[in-house]
Amino acid sequence: MKAGLVAVVGKPNVGKSTLINAIVGHKVSIVSDKVQTTRKRVLGIATTDDFQIIFVDTPGIHKAKHKLGAALNETAQQSVHDVDLVLVMTDCSRMPADEDKNVSRILKESGALNQPEKLILCLNKMDKLKAEDVERVYEAYKELFPTENIVMTSLTREQNLDILQGLIVKLLPENPTFYPDDIYTDQPMAFLAAESVREKALHLTREEIPHSIATYCEEWTRDETDNRLLIRVVILTERDGQKAIILGHKGAMIKEIGIQARREIEEMVGEQVFLELFVKVRADWRQSPRWLKELDYI
Ligand SMILES: Nc1nc2c(ncn2[C@@H]2O[C@H](COP(=O)(O)OP(=O)(O)OP(=O)(O)O)[C@@H](O)[C@H]2O)c(=O)[nH]1
Ligand SMILES: [Mg+2]
């Protein structure tokens, strides 16, 4: 039996959470085309008869502009300690940017680059890479993250996912499993439900809205009269104007967020649910240590 922890790190929006969901086979971490989608450390656990990969999903490492950003970077940096493997993910359709260099520097400082045999470099989004650029990007990323364990993938097309999984398993130490085989995350259902709401809001909104909202589950109870699960999720915004956008014209936006999230949550819990959404305004919550703590971001 091979088993162990694999921290997945990299700059924002490269596909870290997409990878984890694909190998775990459950949606443990939300995905979007906006940066800084993942906001806290989340475990995604894939178990078979031969292995247990315990992925640590982390926020994308970026140039922080507020306390929330600093907390996200801190979470990501801490996650590479005490793991068996570090998987660094990059978007190979572009040459390394300052953010990739910053990730490299952080991994160097943590000592991860001194153990190339425990480092995996995933060059993702190869579907967007031109054939004539392959060698150039390969060498450029290898220079930043020196290791022989390199896999080029397209997660959206499921290309080379099996090769990457095989490599992870090969490099994991011999261990008994750490979690029962039916557990796929360390997060409670209430967190997954709140994240589902945030994901739908990220998909349906633009500009500053995705970054300025947070969600949390306020209530998770069973209605005694009709035995239905009642889930109340709060969408936190920073300004009245943002609240108005989330609500939408005559409530159309929040209704759509609710419909899409409810569908996903019902699939997750395997029964019908009553999903209630509330929008609250808390000025500058991203700068408030109390709110960041409340939301479990620090
Ligand atoms: N074209 C292409 N898009 C991809 C691929 N893998 C992931 N994506 C897309 O890239 C975007 C970001 O994916 P995420 O998994 O949320 O990225 P992340 O690295 O977890 O991002 P943060 O949590 O913000 O750090 C989503 O729109 C994905 O669908 C790929 O192989 N090719
Ligand atoms: Mg993510």
Structure overview:
The protein has 298 residues and is α/β, with parallel strands linked by helices. The chain has two domains: 2-171, P-loop containing nucleotide triphosphate hydrolases (Rossmann fold, 3-Layer(aba) Sandwich), CATH 3.40.50; 189-294, GMP Synthetase, Chain A, domain 3, CATH 3.30.300.20. The protein is 37% helix and 22% strand. The chain has ten helices and nine strands. It has helices spanning 16-24, 67-79, 98-110, 134-144, 161-171, 189-204, 209-212, 240-247, 252-269, 289-294, and strands at residues 2-10, 42-47, 51-57, 85-91, 119-124, 150-152, 214-222, 229-237, 273-281. A six-stranded mixed sheet has the order 2-3-1-4-5-6, with helices on both faces. Helix 6 (189-204) packs antiparallel against helix 9 (252-269). The radius of gyration is 20 Å and the shape is globular. The mean pLDDT is 97. The structure holds guanosine-5'-triphosphate and magnesium ion (MG). Guanosine-5'-triphosphate binds at residues 12-18, 31-33, 35-38, 59-60, 124-125, 127-128, 154-156.
